[in-house]
Amino acid sequence: MDVAKPDLTTALRDVRLQYENLASKNMSESEEWYKSKFAVLTEAASRHSEALPQAKQDCNDYRRQVQELTCEVDALKGTNESLERQMHEMEENFALESSKYEDSIARLEGDICNMKDEMSHHLREYQDLLNVKMALDIEIATYRKLLEGEESQITTPMQNFYSLNLRETSLDMRSDMDSFSKKAPIKTTETQDGHVINEMTQDHGDLE
User: Fold this and answer.
1) Does the CA dihedral 88-94-96-102 come out positive or negative?
2) Is the pTM of this model over 0.85?
3) Do 187 and 198 form a contact (C-beta atoms < 8 A)?
4) Which segments constitute the IF rod domain (predicted)?
């Protein structure tokens, strides 16, 4: 039997035609895609090229603002350091003045205590002098009463014998005064703030 041989040439030509058609189709699609992308990129590039000067201007403005802010920060740092130095100096001066004031207060308190002690001492001396004065006043009043009593006893209706008995009367008056003064008690009163705190009565014999 005769076997029919395949026609390879025709088959290869058909495959080649198919691949050529597919390649041309892909090439056309690629060109269209490339053209569309190129158009988009061209439009974007033109758009960005128009915005580029403004971006450069903005960048320059921002750079200048950064420099200005940096200068302001440096100035503020210098001011802050100066204020901190002044604050430390003021704190040191305040501490020194506070120490001086505390020393002055301590000295004044010591002076006040000394003045209080001196005042108490003077008050005691004044009280002692006042007690002595009161005792002397009482003694003077007692002697005055004694003298008044002696004068009343010396003055008698007997005027004729006055000149004769003058010396004797004087001697008698002196002796009577001594006796009365020895017999009359002395009363001592001690007061404080206008109130009697102590009373003491003594005879001349006890004092001698």
Assistant:
1) negative
2) no
3) no
4) 1-154
How many C-beta neighbours within 10 Å does residue 40 have? 10
Tokens of 17: 């035609």
Least confident of 25-29, 52-56, 57-61, 183-187: 183-187
And the tokens for 124?
Answer: 């005691």
Residue with tokens 């190129």: 38
φ, ψ of residue 192 to 5 degrees: the values are -150, 125
Which amino acid does the sequence have at 176?
Answer: D
Q: Give the pLDDT confidence of 111-130 residue by residue, as tens digits.
A: 999 999 999 999 999 999 99
How many whole angstroms separate alpha carbon 122 and alpha carbon 136? 20
Q: Which residues contact 29 (CB under 8 A, 6 or more apart)?
A: none
pLDDT digits (tens, 9 = 90+) for 91-115: 999 999 999 999 999 999 999 999 9
Task: Give every CB contact of residue 47 below 8 A, 6+ residues apart in sequence.
Answer: none
